[in-house]
Amino acid sequence: MPATDASLMPPPSRTMNFNAGPAALPLAVLEACRDELVDFGNTGMSIMEHSHRGAAYEAVHHDAIARLRSLMSIPDGTGTGGYDILFMQGGASQQFAQVAMNLLSPGASAGYIVSGVWGEKAVSEARAVASQSGATVHVACTTASSTPGAPSEASLNPGRWGGDAKYVRVPDAEEVALAPTDAYVHLTTNETIDGVQYATAPGAIFPSFGTVPVVGDMSSDIAWRPIDVRQFGLIYAGAQKNLGPSGVTVVIIRRDLVEAGRTDIPVIFQYRTASRNTSLYNTPPTFSIYLMRQVLAWIGNLGGLEAVEARNRAKASAIYRVIDAFPEFYRCPVAVDSRSMMNIVFRLPTPALEEAFVASSEAHGMVGLRGHRSVGGIRASLYNAVEPAWADALAQLMHDTATRHA
Ligand SMILES: *Cc1c(COP(=O)(O)O)cnc(C)c1O
């Protein structure tokens, strides 16, 4: 079954963008943005030129928050029953530090689940913060060198995924060793570089650790499907993969954690500052928030997160189906139940064939398929705004390439 309805085909001039981030944006959003770029809502000026304290921008700002709350069904109660939605800057990378700055008091600790390259960065930044604040950070579980679940056949070509399989699955909750002093446990819901994702099965839930709040780096899979936000104490995500352009980072934080956050760090880094000021303490990235709001409206028009999930699953299965149909030619190193629906990583038999494949994809109007420089291979990022027709075109190219070499 093709993932595409021909009427949804983008115009042929549009590049098929499989970039890992910044990534594809919906054409309808870009066109709407173009149409009102120099004159927003008959104000005679661009949204970029409006004061962040003015009525025109404030309406956009509050509507973006309201749309995200409704789309992701983010609870609005008090204490542990409610979550604030904050718009920050500095990217997910800043959150690596900011989470620890707010949530780690002297004597406290945090456990990190490391299932890929981004998890490594998160724990390393948290350690730097902890060493300043008399707290500790420990790796509660890592899949850096474990092989269970990894494909058992010998690697088709040497390199990153040969021999000892690194970061090819998400761990089970039982493998995670927390300490009694842990203030939170951190995990990366989707490892963008390694192509490893939590909770991909329909309706799957995230691991739970009793009363210890889970902090999730959801940069590359926020809003790919409906989830129960209450499984997390804090979620953060740079917008530039699934929600919009770079420049704004979404933080969804349980209200009791905002209140419990440290007060002896600079106010600009305290979550309570953004919370008390509805992310208008200082100048927010107004244009990024404006564009994210348009993307949220576009997701609503598609039919919300249930519809987006169906669309995303269709795209991912179009690609995985070809990988599985040609096991002598394509190899996805990731355990089947941890395979990412957002970033599909795979290898061809030789680096030369991979180079030829990238060149051929470019000749077919596709960009962004070269794997991350640290791991090589091929990576197809299939975020919300990637058209089903593009995934079909890529699947066709993969099919034709494998058939030609059979
Ligand atoms: C892209 C990404 C980051 C880094 O995001 P920045 O906004 O560039 O800081 C962190 N974590 C994950 C999982 C990512 O995909």
Explained architecture:
This protein has two domains: 47-300, Type I PLP-dependent aspartate aminotransferase-like (Major domain) (Aspartate Aminotransferase, domain 2); 304-404, Aspartate Aminotransferase, domain 1, CATH 3.90.1150. The protein is built from ten helices and 13 strands. The protein has helices spanning 27-35, 55-71, 91-103, 117-133, 255-260, 271-276, 286-302, 304-325, 351-363, 388-405, and strands at 16-17, 83-88, 109-114, 136-142, 182-188, 190-191, 196-197, 214-217, 234-238, 249-254, 343-346, 366-367, 378-381. Strand 3 (109-114), helix 4 and strand 4 form a beta-alpha-beta unit. 47% of the residues are buried. The chain binds pyridoxal-5'-phosphate (PLP). The site of pyridoxal-5'-phosphate has 11 residues, from helix 3.
Features:
single chain, 2 domains, seven-stranded mixed sheet, two-stranded parallel ribbon, Aspartate Aminotransferase, domain 1, Aspartate Aminotransferase, domain 2, alpha/beta, 13 strands, binds pyridoxal-5'-phosphate, 406 residues
Radius of gyration: 21 Å
Number of strands: 13
Q: Could you name the CATH topology of the largest domain?
A: Aspartate Aminotransferase, domain 2
The residue-averaged pLDDT reads 93
**Helix/strand class:** alpha/beta
Percent of residues in β-strands: 5-15%
CATH homologous superfamily grouping of the largest domain: Type I PLP-dependent aspartate aminotransferase-like (Major domain)
Question: Low-confidence parts, pLDDT < 50 over ≥5 residues?
Answer: 148-163
Give the number of helices.
Answer: 10
Shape estimate: globular
**Count of the domains:** 2
* Estimated helix fraction: 25-40%
- First-residue to last-residue Cα separation: 24 Å
* Helix and strand element order: EHHEHEHEEEEEEEHHHHEHEEH
